[in-house]
Design goal:
The structure is a single chain. The longest helix is centred in the C-terminal third of the chain and has 21 residues. The radius of gyration is 22 Å and the shape is elongated. It starts with a helix and ends with a helix. The strands form 2 sheets. The chain has a 7-stranded parallel beta sheet with strand order 3-2-1-4-5-6-7, with helices on both faces. It is 44% helix and 14% strand. It is α/β, with parallel strands linked by helices and 468 residues long. It has 19 helices and 13 strands. The chain has 2 domains: 187 residues, Glycogen Phosphorylase B (Rossmann fold, 3-Layer(aba) Sandwich); 204 residues, 3-Layer(aba) Sandwich (Rossmann fold). Bound molecules: 2-acetamido-2-deoxy-beta-D-glucopyranose (NAG) (3 copies). One 2-acetamido-2-deoxy-beta-D-glucopyranose binds next to helix 9. It holds the Pfam family Glycos_transf_1. GO terms for molecular function: glycosyltransferase activity. Keywords: Glycosyltransferase, Membrane, Transferase, Transmembrane, Transmembrane helix. InterPro entries: Glyco_trans_1, Glyco_trans_4_5.
């Protein structure tokens, strides 16, 4: 060990220690800020407007694309403040804007009345980076909204804040509102949340699939029209890329996690990293996994020992569903192959430890699915459902393999598991292709560039409006 350490520089050692610390104590420290959303996740890159202008140039070391936001006043309105995808994404935007010298004010619309440790630490993280935090209601909130160059509403539900707080001033603020939407589930389509949507300056949505869904649903269900809509895919944070590209760190993390799971170095690990819930499809994944073992046995294939890892266990929350999963594991005698890991924000150690990411989100799939681009950064192939944002990230046959959602997907996924278990070369090649795709379009700088072009248009619209 001492010998290995010689080649490390001080900063490598420092962050690696931090990572291990986070990993071992699993606290709520947001070091690698990464969301753990529900249906619509974390994301960007690829701003495409209604008119389908694809901006696919590679941006290298150019001036920060957000520089024009310097000294602009931006009000960010978050529906809530928690360690879930939506708020963490908005915080990332807050820090991007602060880094170019914008004045950033943050409002959390819904806060619990009792003291909350997570909110406290997230607010302090923001204050440390020069973000001003205001109460959701009151004259100061109204004045800031009126003065701001731009207001970003985060999630559809944040629409509740507009009338409740701005009251008769609402019409002065709407022309400078950019509405960032990450949801793709029916119960968000309520007029009370989104009635102002048609007259805001723009909507920013995480994937084309989700944007289409919103366009259709608002028209069919609510009889309203979407404003100018921009699709902005997410990008990987610098911190994540730093770990993903450090082979020494990855090796250490891999050994550490594998040891903690009792898994040998040559074993193959297939993992879902998502909160345990029916929508994320852990039940169907386990069925596929079981079926793949049977296929291997029936065909007498020579493969390493396979494991399934489910990162995102929470016995306090989804107990019924998780009990079902655990019962399945016991019934099928898979205890030595299936591993449940508690929900965590520090996904890097697991990405370093596994061999294949399974993205098995059901129904309309992920809104984007940030874990998918994170896994690809770690050179992992992805076995994903052909739904939602996954279809915009994973290139079927090249960076991973897609299977249908629902029960029809169980056997195809089982076969894909066998395919990647038996073809080492193919698995590694897919991982490399995935990594190249991330470098080409799913980096933080791509996301910043995409967001910048949206903000520029929204600013122009706001300026040309007589009210603001
Ligand atoms: C639009 O919505 C209708 C019903 O709400 C549905 O039948 C149709 O398939 C949807 N179209 C798209 C492209 O999603
Ligand atoms: C996982 O979470 C459960 C409760 O939800 C807890 O009892 C258990 O100790 C946790 N395991 C680890 C390894 O932290
Ligand atoms: C993915 O590609 C495979 C062949 O490589 C094909 O059989 C399968 O139908 C494709 N799936 C989707 C969802 O396009």
């Amino acid at each position: 060990m001492a010998k290995q350490s010689v080649g490390w520089n001080a900063s490598q050692k420092r962050w690696l220690l931090m990572l291990l610390l986070i990993f071992s104590i699993s606290t709520l420290i947001v070091f690698i800020v990464r969301p753990a959303f529900d249906s619509c996740d974390r994301q960007h890159y690829g701003v495409t407007t209604d008119t389908q202008i694809h901006l696919t140039t590679t941006i290298e070391n150019l001036p920060n694309p957000l520089d024009f936001m310097k000294s602009k006043l931006v009000l960010l309105v978050s529906h809530e403040l928690s360690l879930s995808g939506g708020p963490l994404l908005l915080m990332e935007l807050a820090f991007l804007l602060r880094s170019v010298g914008a004045k950033v004010v943050w409002i959390t619309n819904q806060k619990p009345t009792e003291e909350d440790q997570v909110i406290y630490s997230l607010e302090h993280k923001m204050l440390d980076r020069g973000v001003q935090v205001l109460p959701a209601k009151g004259q100061e909130a109204v004045d800031t909204a009126l003065k701001a160059d731009m207001v970003v509403l985060n999630t559809a539900v944040a629409g509740k804040w507009l009338d409740a707080v701005l009251k008769e001033d609402v019409s002065h603020v709407l022309p400078k509102v950019l509405w960032w939407i990450h949801e793709m589930r029916g119960h968000y389509f309520k007029v009370e949340y989104v009635k102002h949507l048609p007259i805001v300056a723009g909507a920013m949505i995480d994937s084309h699939t989700t944007a289409e869904y919103w366009k259709n649903r608002t028209r069919e269900r609510l009889g309203i029209r979407m404003p100018q809509t921009y699709v902005v895919h997410l990008g990987n944070s610098k911190e994540l890329m730093e770990v993903a590209e450090d082979s020494v760190a990855k090796r250490v993390l891999r050994e550490h996690v594998r040891e903690s799971l009792g898994v040998l170095n040559e074993d193959i690990l297939f993992a879902i990293i998502n909160s345990v819930s029916r929508g994320k499809g852990q039940d169907l994944f386990l069925r596929s996994f079981h079926e793949s073992l049977q296929l291997i046995q029936d065909q007498k294939l020579q493969v390493p020992f396979l494991h399934a890892v489910i990162v995102g266990s929470d016995m306090n929350a989804q107990t019924k569903f998780e009990m079902e999963l655990r019962k399945f594991v016991t019934e099928k005698g898979l205890q030595d192959r299936v591993h449940f890991v508690n929900k965590t924000l520090a996904v890097a150690p697991y990405l370093a430890a596994i061999d294949v990411l399974v993205q098995n989100s059901q129904a309309r799939g992920e809104c984007f699915g940030r874990i998918t681009i994170e896994a690809m950064a770690f050179q992992l192939p992805v076995l994903g459902t052909a739904a939602g944002g996954t279809t915009e990230i994973v290139v079927n046959g090249s960076t991973g393999l897609l299977h249908p959602v629902g029960k029809e997907g169980v056997t195809p996924l089982a076969k894909n598991i066998v395919r990647l278990a038996t073809h080492v070369e193919r698995r590694l090649t897919m991982g490399k292709k995935g990594y190249e795709r991330v470098k080409e379009r799913f980096m933080e700088r791509h996301m910043a560039h995409r967001i910048a072009s949206v903000l520029k248009e929204v600013l122009q619209k706001a300026k040309s409006n007589p009210h603001s």
